[in-house]
User: What shape does this take?
Amino acid sequence: MSELFDAVDALVASRSPLPPPAERKRLRQAHGLTLDEVATALRVRRATLSGWEAGRTEPRPPERDAYARLLEQLARLYPADPDATAPAPDTTPTAPDTQDAPPEREQAAVPGARPSVPTPATRRRDAGRTARPSPPPSGTDRFANGPLLVLDADAERRVTGYGVGGLVLDVPAKSLPALVEWALTEARLGAPRLHGSGKDADPLLVLTESALERYGLPVRLSEAERLAGRLPDGHKAVKQLHRADWQLTQRGFGPWARVYRPAEGRLRQCVQLCVPSWNALDPRTWGGAAQLEPAELARVLGAYAVRVLTPRGSAAVTGLELMTATNPPTRAGEPDESGRRHKEHRPGSLGERPIDCAPCEAPDGHPLLAHLPRFHQRGPEEMLLEEAYDWARRLTDDECMRRYLVGIDVNLAFGAAANGAVVGLAAPPVHVRRPSFDAALPGSWLVDLSHVDLSRVLVGKRRQQVRGDLLPNPFTPTGEPPSGPAWYATPTVAYAVELGYEVAPVEAWVREEKGRFLDGWYKRLRDAYVETMSDLGVGEKLPPAQFLQAMDGYRQRDPEMAMVLDAVKSTVKGGIGKLRERARGGWKPGQPWPALSRPTWRPDIRATVISRARVNMHRKMLNLAAATGRYPVAVLSDCAVYAADGPSPLDVLPYGADGRTVPGSFRIGVSPGMVKHEGTQTTLWAEEVREKYGQDLNLARYIKTGEVAAGDDGE
Assistant: This one.
């Protein structure tokens, strides 16, 4: 009989009435539960639970039974206010759940507090008005709903915004101009500045395909629009914005559009729009993020925005913007006679104005080189060529007898090289003839380093003999020895001195105003990288063997966080690359291009970072060789390949019982500058691919997968 009673109870529970959507959300928040916690308990996706709370979908058995039971128990603990009217759909922004919010916004949500309920007049308010927005809320409440929303529309044209920490908002705006205004006035979106002299981050709205249709925008750009990178100025959506007194930047309405009105005092009025279906999220950086569900995409972009910076475009663009955000060019000066403060140059920054590089630092086609013949090819004695390694050699007989080739990869190599780098700041370079080399002075030096003999160098302040022919030369990207005078950045010349050799520069372009401009930038990215790796199950303090074990399959533990990790790494490389952004289509050699007008167009800083990265790599390889007799057989940027008897990095890098390895060499771990396992192949594999594609094939390029799709072209 008890089985019959159980069946009857289950039948009744399957039809149990559920409270209205707003009440479901209130009950969850009243108990301090996050969307993730409830979704995990009910064994559903977070996006599914968000839909139940927003009223877009209803739960079905068996999840409905458990959900009803949860809500019933919570209702007994947190009864509704008897004086309140029946809850209406919640269309006002609600703060993120405390446990999901980033630390700086945890005070925005109070467990047990009831969400505010808008009046019918608020819900019916005309969203198409064009009046100027009123100032946003001040204090901690101003950015209570996080840096961004991913907007999605349903079949009834209702728009929902998905934010950080499982936040879900109803979006009342009926037109594109009203959407921009809502984002600035009612949505409580944005992020606080990263530096006291910087600027707050503007709200970011990510438009899914359904949201594009809802607001009269094409789901895909036409071929002509794709090539132009924007909608035509005559498009109805662009006209609609202009009629409402909104403006677009010179880039127009493209995949990353900025819609703004001139600032009123210190209050910025700017919203950024991101359109994934217009290829705003480059798959080389973001993987398959553009195909994610709205709530999942909000999690990915939100994590990146909270840990790095609200995206402003590509990862490279954001990396450059982060430099300015962490080291702003100006600050507020002392009050004048009227009590007003005016901006002034901020020491330690690059300033507001671009400065010319030295002729040797200028890339081909730069206006400083307009006097050169059209097809003139500059050599190393005319052009600074600080690039990452691309070097390989043939295996020795002893290495051929070993079974494996093991690749090790330096974590965030260019970021680690940026940390502590002393670079020129806001003053132009000074030309000096026959200078005495000063390792503390950033600049470019014309000097002959061909006399440096790698077989007899200082290692740890002791002169030792090593097989210099088995190491790449530290002074050229190809690893080949220099043949005469060449231009080098300061860290490269300083390394020659460190190895025990005198240097005599012929001339130099030096920068006496100097500082560690990139330190804050590195720290922000370093913390983002380590935190994201922790999300993937790879902690910072793991011993080498445990670290390697944790790295096995780490990307599959949370594919969304793996996308964030890739974006962080792309931000580092792309940001450094943007310091010497080249000209694009529609440009003639000798003429300036737009990037030259930026204070952050600084090829000298890029050269310094890359020089430090290459020197750091060589120093570690040299220390390992001097201590163990092990030499790399190939190096590509931050990856080095070694022959070994076993397949693990532990078969290459010796670790003692105390957990220590060769001082000054590679160390296994998650922190930037330490190394992880890149991949392992057999020595037989190396012989086969080189026999097929040539003996100069760089094995480091293919050590990860072992697949060689075509001949090695150096790209």
About this structure: The chain has a mean pLDDT of 88. The longest strand covers residues 256-264. The CA atoms of residues 36 and 417 lie 38 Å apart.
